[in-house]
Amino acid sequence: MDLNSSKMKKLAKWLVGVVAVCILIYLGVKNINTLASSVSYLFKLFGPLILGLVFALILNVPMSFFEGVLWKHAKKKLWVKLRRPIAFIISLVIILGILTGVVCLVIPELADAVVIIAKGAMELAKEISRMDKTSELYRFFDGILVQIDWSNIITSLQSWVTDTGSGIMNSALSRVTALFGGIVDFFIAFIFAIYILFSKKTLKVQTTRLIRAWLPEAFGEWMIHASSVASRVFRSFVSGQTIEALILGTLCMLGMLILRIPYAPMVGALVGITALIPVVGAFIGAGVGAFMILTVDPWKALIFLIFLIVLQQIEGNIIYPKVMGTRVNLPAMWILAAVTVGGGLAGPIGMLLGVPVASTAYILIREATEAKEEKNKAAELLEEENSVIEIDD
Question: Model pTM?
């Protein structure tokens, strides 16, 4: 009788939970616009803090490495206290140095490529003006130009400038204000990341105490375990992705030097940096690199694209599995899904964080499934033993 009562209580709790979830889903769908605006407001309100947390997660990977290397066996309190600040400074200098180097390499060359294309367009216009007026090619271009109503275009342009001048000024003012706000948010996020990194052990202890004090025991322990899995997966992902990007960028640069393709160091660095974004990052680097090479030699640009496609196949099928190994235990299909969804939600940062988040969820779901299967097997064995005992009786 007690057993049936216990089962009825569990069933009642389960039914109440299912009904509550269904009601919440119904209310959320019915008020989807209000819910979306509320979520957007919360993200805007806590945006700098969320960005600071992302900065802290990324910086924590190299920082933890240097903390484990610097003065590993030091016993003096001074060296122990200096270990974390120096590890932070080294990590920050390395990351900023890499980003600054790539920007200094890419931006000037990209600007030169745009200038070259603009000059090419101007030269084409000059050639058309110098063309023999009796030739068919000139009559073709002349016919196109004559058909355009230039006076109407100029009049429309003048009226547009007059009507929208104030709007342009207001838009420019709002853009400047948004830029200033973005700079302020960035510095707030950076300061918040520093606080997190320098007090991470204290925050970990405090968070664990809060979870165990205020949440049910089973759920609290699951949250602590899930956080541990997420931290381990993220560190493994960032370190593995960084090594893989370094290898890909180096191989790209060496291959371009062998094939005598221009902009080898710059394109190699760009491909390596963009390869930090899983799946689609290398294609971004390939597109920008091919655009710049095209301004020098179109044939070399085609050779570069073919070379990079071959290199990506070798890297994706041989190098990447060796480097990543079991670091991020996630099938390729879910990696692509995680990058797509993450990019749609949070842009490049979402594309970068989508894979470790999906991998964490994949591991936790797999663990829960295996635990459920073991529990079901144990229940089946117990039922078989009870049935055997009843038969013997």
Answer: 0.66
